[in-house]
Amino acid sequence: MTAKRVSLADVARLAGVSSNTVSRVVRNDPEVSAATRDRIQQLLAELDYRPNLAARALANSRTGVIHVLLATPMYYGHAQTFLAITNAAS
Prior knowledge:
single chain, 434 Repressor (Amino-terminal Domain), mainly alpha
């Protein structure tokens, strides 16, 4: 059985701060004091916190994924186009 994933709320409860404060630390918001930021970052590392990218994509209405459909087999020109898209998106 796998362990439950650590949430922002879990980190906030252990740090004695709000979930919003933990979220601001994760997003590198400068409005959080250095002492609070350090304490929360230490907890995030200890708990092996990983942001939920699916939740972030839903909240932002962005997935960070570009879909490309081809009606023909892959040719050299398509590969160059994909490379250009990848470079522009990164």
